[in-house]
Design goal:
The complex is a heterodimer.
Chain A: E1 4-7, E2 10-13, E3 19-25, E4 31-38, E5 42-49, E6 56-57, E7 64-68, E8 74-78, E9 87-94, E10 102-103, E11 107-111
Parallel strand pairs in A: 2-11
Antiparallel strand pairs in A: 1-3, 3-8, 4-5, 4-9, 5-6, 7-8, 9-10, 9-11
Chain B: E1 3-6, E2 11-14, E3 19-26, E4 32-38, E5 45-51, E6 56-59, E7 62-67, E8 72-77, E9 86-92, E10 103-104, E11 108-113
Parallel strand pairs in B: 2-11
Antiparallel strand pairs in B: 1-3, 3-8, 4-5, 4-9, 6-7, 7-8, 9-10, 9-11
Classes of the chains: A mainly beta, B mainly beta.
Chain lengths: 112, 114
């Protein structure tokens, strides 16, 4: 039982490059999330998927797109990376209100 | 505006003492509040959830209180150990709907010295 798995763990991009962060959960959770974490800012919600087939914007969606490929997988795409997107990205999943969130180990992204 | 505030300064305590961390929120009416632990380079890990009708919740050396009048939650670690050193995050769901969308505080770093 792996929980939430994110790939890659580290990535360096040049400004303007694109990439996709992958996330998969094996707990049969309905809801999945992408957060970014910056020093002094805490975790901020980028996009979320309440259930398979739906996605919606969070607090800081600009510059990102997401795909809920199936119930297990939720990917985050940066179409044209900018230095402001340098951050640690976390994927999470839950099984509804009042339940704990399970997080992946994070992706440390640097945009130069 | 809506805010969740945790003390941004690190809390330094000696081993064996009780650590108390504070989470204050403004302009939310959450049905429950959660606490997470985060170690460097790792994702947050769930610790406890407390509901609005619960005054206190305990799990081993951990205790959480929730005061909806003060809009505050306190997180206590009794008989603290160096292994308790980490950043602790509080989180709440502002929507109280059929879908959970957690909003997190910035976290408080706890350092327990031997």
């Amino acid at each position: 039982n792996a929980g939430v798995t994110q790939t890659p763990k580290f990535q360096v991009l040049k400004t303007g490059q694109s990439m996709t962060l992958q996330c998969a959960q094996d707990m049969n959770h309905n809801s999945m999330y992408w957060y970014r974490q910056d020093p002094g800012m805490g975790l901020r919600l980028i996009y979320y998927s309440a259930s398979e087939g739906t996605t919606d914007k969070g607090e800081v969606p600009n510059g990102y797109n997401v795909s809920r490929l199936n119930k297990r997988e939720f990917s985050l795409r940066l179409e044209s990376a900018a230095p402001s997107q340098t951050s640690v990205y976390f994927c999470a999943s839950t099984n509804g209100p009042g339940t704990e969130a399970f997080f992946g180990q994070g992706t440390r992204l640097t945009v130069v | 505006s809506q805010k969740i505030e945790q003390n941004s300064e690190a809390l330094n305590i000696q081993e064996g003492k009780t650590a108390t961390l504070t989470c204050n929120y403004t302009n939310y009416s959450p049905a429950y509040l959660q606490w997470y632990r985060q170690d460097p380079g790792r994702g947050p890990v769930f610790l406890l959830l407390i509901r609005e009708n619960e005054k206190e919740k305990r799990k081993e050396r951990l205790k959480v209180t929730f005061d909806t009048t003060l809009k505050q939650s306190l997180f206590h670690i009794t008989a603290s150990q160096p292994a308790d050193s980490a950043t602790y995050l509080c989180a709440l769901d502002p929507m109280n709907t059929g879908f959970q969308k957690l909003v997190f505080g910035t976290g408080t770093r706890l350092l327990v010295s031997p």
